[in-house]
């Protein structure tokens, strides 16, 4: 077949295959155009999941009548001058509208502030109609009907109406977080409406918008982030470790206001939370990166969801460092959803045992609780009173049953006064004063306005782990010399990268040196690892350095060993603790970063406010 020039329609349909994957992609492009036009209000209407109809209306600057034909021509844009490295708008390629018009029926109706009337233009399957007068308020309305009618094969790859509507809703929410001063509404054919009222473009306003999108629980369980390094600024919020999710869908990242899904940012978030979350749990985050547009390439893919940083190591290091510092500096806090789950369990009609569901991020442990054979307090061997049977000689009121509640000899008035004074001081602390130990594993403590229940094993496990980790990384890790050096063959570039990080690796107990052009010799390995697959370890490190320019793989292995040692060396369940020991444990928790969760990501304590307890008894 001879070489020939493709038609303009065919070129646009090829571009549409990259830019317009599904209805949500159309909504994304049109909403971004509205925001670039200075809109303060954006309304989206869909039907049939967006395949039948998408209508986006804004109150932006509008498009002059004489420019409407250019607006739907390929590579025509008002957002890019001569420097492609200085992109300060969401759109810039000039591909979206002609791509949509090549596969759907598209119409644009617009009016500028200076215009006496509006004008309208249409394009259907790549065929453009003439510009004609229309009636409209200031702004632009873009209507897309019968998406992919010109390329019916694409319709076979679409999901159901509900799935497409959900994808569209997620796109609108993701964009809305970055523009809190803009009002967004989304209405579907199922009469469901998403309304996001405008707030302000301030830290408080941004957090209020985040709460609109992610739920009212997030602000109460969030930690603010504000850090900078070498011209890169990071701001936003992260969740406390005990407030997590089973997937990463609620991790929002923005680069210069642009929503992105970048694996470097996702990996940095995962690495920053590695010590406080299990591998199958994910933090909830909203992070805004601001940097010179010339140091980030947003033109990696036509969909503009991927970016490439000039200095990825700097960006990753900033994210990991800022999150870890914020977690370390944050005072110990329990997720509010833990108390909500407890409240739900106590309400009339609730199941005898109601473990918190996915809202508080611990659903993954339900199976373990069920496997333990726990069937509820009414049948538990640890129930406070034996409620089986009846009559005066049974039902938990026999003398031998009541003997368990014997308070023992009375304490003198002077001794009680001294105890009360010490306890009063502890009531003002975060975790309060220990009052009791129940089921030989749970410490019940009291603060001035709440009741706190602490899992003693989980809490001490975190304390021991942090102590081991600090000892591990405060000095060089002990190493063991191999009798014969292990030679690992690698590509030349991987061997060079490992050699550049040899000093850091030596600090973690791994001694390597170059061995010819395409190999390294491993002479020492960390003693803590024992017998290990040196070949695999070195190759994993080489892959990580190539991706992220870090050696976290080795550090992660050492930390996991420290976590295992902490688990076996901590206070076990079933050990009776004296009041002094319980209070000492509470004070250590308050002074230790990350002690709100154990090494496996489970909460170490739950706080129930006095107001909530009073509601249970009908006092409020």
TrEMBL record:
Please verify whether the record's keywords include DNA repair: yes
Q: Which residues form the MutL C-terminal dimerisation domain?
A: 434-577
* Keywords annotated in UniProt: DNA damage, DNA repair, Endonuclease, Hydrolase, Nuclease
Listed under GO biological process in this entry are:
mismatch repair
Where are the stretches annotated Disordered? 380-399
- What are the GO cellular component annotations? mismatch repair complex
The answer to whether keyword DNA repair applies is yes
MF terms per GO, please?
A: ATP binding; ATP hydrolysis activity; ATP-dependent DNA damage sensor activity; endonuclease activity; mismatched DNA binding
Q: Report domain DNA mismatch repair protein S5 positions.
A: 210-328
Q: Which InterPro entries match?
A: DNA_mismatch_repair_CS (IPR014762), DNA_mismatch_repair_MutL (IPR020667), DNA_mismatch_S5_2-like (IPR013507), HATPase_C_sf (IPR036890), MutL/Mlh/PMS (IPR002099), MutL/Mlh/Pms-like (IPR038973), MutL_C (IPR014790), MutL_C_dimsub (IPR042120)
Q: Which residues form the signal peptide?
A: none
**Which HAMAP family does the UniProt entry name for this protein?**
DNA_mis_repair
User: What is the stated purpose of this protein?
Assistant: This protein is involved in the repair of mismatches in DNA. It is required for dam-dependent methyl-directed DNA mismatch repair. May act as a 'molecular matchmaker', a protein that promotes the formation of a stable complex between two or more DNA-binding proteins in an ATP-dependent manner without itself being part of a final effector complex.
Q: Which family does it belong to?
A: Belongs to the DNA mismatch repair MutL/HexB family.
Q: What is this protein called?
A: DNA mismatch repair protein MutL
Query: What is the native source organism of this protein?
Result: Mesorhizobium waimense
Q: What is the lineage of its organism?
A: Bacteria, Pseudomonadati, Pseudomonadota, Alphaproteobacteria, Hyphomicrobiales
């Amino acid at each position: 077949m001879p070489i020939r020039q493709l038609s303009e329609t065919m070129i646009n349909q090829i571009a549409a295959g990259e830019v317009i994957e599904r209805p949500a992609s159309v909504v994304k492009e049109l909403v971004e155009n509205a925001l670039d036009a200075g809109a303060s209000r954006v309304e989206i209407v869909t039907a049939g999941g967006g395949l039948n109809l998408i209508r986006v209306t804004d109150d932006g600057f509008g498009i002059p009548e004489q420019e409407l034909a250019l607006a739907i021509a390929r590579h025509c844009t008002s957002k890019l001058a001569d420097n492609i490295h200085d992109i300060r708008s969401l759109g810039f390629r000039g591909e979206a509208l002609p791509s949509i018009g090549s596969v759907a029926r598209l119409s644009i109706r617009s009016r500028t502030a200076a215009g006496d009337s509006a004008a309208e233009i249409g394009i259907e399957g790549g065929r453009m109609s003439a510009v004609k007068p229309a009636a409209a308020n200031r702004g632009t309305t873009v209507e897309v009907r019968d998406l992919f009618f010109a390329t019916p094969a694409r319709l076979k790859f679409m999901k159901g109406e509900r799935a497409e509507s959900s994808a569209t809703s997620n796109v609108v929410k993701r964009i809305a977080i970055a523009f809190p001063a803009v009002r967004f509404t989304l209405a579907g054919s199922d009469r469901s409406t998403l309304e996001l009222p405008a707030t302000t473009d301030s830290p408080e306003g941004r957090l209020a918008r985040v709460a609109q999108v992610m739920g009212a629980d997030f602000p109460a369980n969030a930690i603010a982030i504000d850090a900078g390094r070498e011209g890169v600024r990071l701001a936003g919020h992260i969740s406390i470790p005990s407030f997590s999710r089973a997937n990463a869908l609620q991790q929002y990242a923005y680069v210069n206001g642009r929503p992105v899904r970048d694996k470097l940012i996702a990996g940095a978030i995962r690495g920053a939370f590695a010590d406080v979350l299990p591998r199958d749990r994910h933090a909830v985050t909203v992070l805004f990166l601001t940097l010179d547009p010339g140091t980030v390439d947003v033109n990696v893919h036509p969909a503009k969801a991927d970016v490439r940083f000039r200095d990825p190591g700097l960006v990753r290091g900033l994210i990991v460092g800022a999150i870890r510092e914020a977690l370390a500096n944050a005072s110990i806090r329990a997720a509010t959803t833990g108390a909500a789950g407890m409240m739900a369990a106590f309400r009339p009609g609730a199941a005898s045992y109601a473990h918190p569901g996915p809202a508080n991020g611990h659903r993954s442990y339900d199976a373990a609780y069920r496997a333990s054979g726990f069937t509820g307090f009414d049948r538990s061997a640890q129930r406070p009173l034996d409620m089986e049977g009846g009559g005066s000689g049974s039902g938990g009121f026999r003398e031998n049953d009541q003997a368990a509640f014997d308070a023992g000899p009375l304490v003198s008035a002077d001794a009680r006064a001294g105890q009360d004074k010490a306890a009063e001081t502890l009531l003002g602390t975060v975790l309060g004063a220990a009052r009791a130990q129940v089921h030989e594993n749970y410490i019940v403590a009291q603060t001035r306005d709440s009741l706190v229940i602490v899992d003693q094993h989980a809490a001490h496990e975190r304390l021991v782990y942090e102590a081991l980790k600090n000892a591990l990384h405060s000095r060089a890790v002990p190493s063991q010399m191999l009798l014969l050096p292990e030679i690992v063959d690698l590509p030349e570039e991987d061997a060079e990268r490992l050699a550049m990080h040899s000093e850091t690796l030596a600090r973690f107990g791994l001694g390597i040196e170059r061995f010819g052009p395409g190999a390294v010799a491993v002479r020492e390995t960390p003693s803590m690892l024992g017998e290990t697959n040196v070949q695999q370890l070195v190759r994993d490190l080489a892959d990580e350095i190539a991706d992220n320019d870090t050696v976290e793989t080795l550090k992660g292995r050492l930390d996991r060993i420290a976590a295992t040692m902490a688990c076996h060396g901590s206070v076990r369940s079933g050990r009776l603790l004296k009041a002094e020991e319980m209070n000492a444990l509470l004070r250590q928790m308050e002074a230790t970063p990350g002690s709100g969760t154990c090494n496996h990501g489970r909460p170490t304590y739950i706080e129930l406010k006095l107001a909530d307890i009073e509601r249970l008894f009908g006092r409020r």
